[in-house]
């Protein structure tokens, strides 16, 4: 597997469950040891300078790694400390998060009591407290309603425009259209790596002159499976 992601790019990883998306993310974040090859994040070699690389990374897991018994403000304070923010800087970033993500009205509410959309906002705010250069989002919109999903992608685009590199995994084909480039994976291998338009173009046929992203995804997976059977 070989790919590069540029600064300010929104890069998507698509694949069915078990394709290797989350494992790839965890390796890039330094949460899992690399199974092989070379991993460089924000100009830092993860094998030699993992701590320096992680300091430049924000990570939002699929399960929203929040502490249910803590309030919104307490969660923000906890993650600020984890990221090394102290004193006035810590308070400044917490106040920024409460305002930027409209969390001030629920600042003293336990995160367990929040609607899913608000928990999503809080998890993203926590991942951004230390102003990372690269943001990893592992299926961040799973389970949320379409309006919350659209709002979330508005934040992603705003971050990209400010130069933050965003890598996102998703199983929603429509979300893949929002990425600058994407990789379609199966069994730890990349089957396609290009812009959404170019990936769809690969699936054109007489029966499907204008294939959707779902059409392209299915065609690539079927082609991979037929190749395995032939082998």
Automatic annotation (TrEMBL):
UniProt cross-references to InterPro entries, sorted A to Z: AAA+_ATPase (IPR003593), ABC_transporter-like_ATP-bd (IPR003439), P-loop_NTPase (IPR027417)
Superkingdom of the organism of origin: Bacteria
Annotated TM spans: none
Keywords, alphabetical: ATP-binding, Nucleotide-binding
Annotated ABC transporter domain residues: 1-212
Keyword Ribonucleoprotein recorded: no
Family annotation (Pfam families): ABC_tran
Name of this protein: ABC transporter domain-containing protein
Native organism taxonomy: Bacteria, Pseudomonadati, Pseudomonadota, Gammaproteobacteria, Chromatiales
């Amino acid at each position: 597997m070989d790919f590069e992601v540029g600064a300010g790019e929104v890069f998507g990883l698509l694949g069915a469950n078990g394709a290797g998306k989350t494992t790839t993310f965890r390796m890039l974040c330094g949460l899992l040891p690399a199974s092989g090859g070379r991993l460089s994040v924000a100009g830092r070699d993860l094998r030699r300078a993992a701590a320096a690389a992680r300091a430049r990374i924000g990570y939002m897991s699929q399960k929203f790694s929040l502490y249910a018994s803590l309030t919104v403000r307490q969660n923000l304070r906890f993650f600020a400390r984890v990221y090394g923010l102290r004193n006035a800087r810590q308070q400044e970033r917490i106040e920024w998060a409460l305002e930027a993500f409209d969390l001030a009205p629920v600042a003293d509410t336990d995160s367990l009591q929040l609607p899913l959309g608000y928990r999503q906002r809080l998890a993203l705010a926590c991942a951004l407290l230390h102003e990372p250069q690269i943001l990893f989002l592992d299926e961040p919109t799973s389970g949320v309603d379409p309006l919350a999903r659209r709002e979330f992608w508005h934040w992603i685009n705003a971050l990209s425009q400010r130069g933050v590199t965003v890598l996102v995994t998703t199983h929603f084909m429509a979300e893949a259209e929002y990425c600058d480039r994407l990789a379609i994976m199966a069994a730890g291998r990349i089957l396609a790596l290009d812009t959404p338009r170019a990936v769809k173009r690969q699936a054109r046929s007489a029966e499907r002159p204008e294939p959707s992203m779902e059409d392209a995804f299915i065609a690539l997976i079927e082609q991979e499976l037929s190749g395995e059977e032939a082998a």
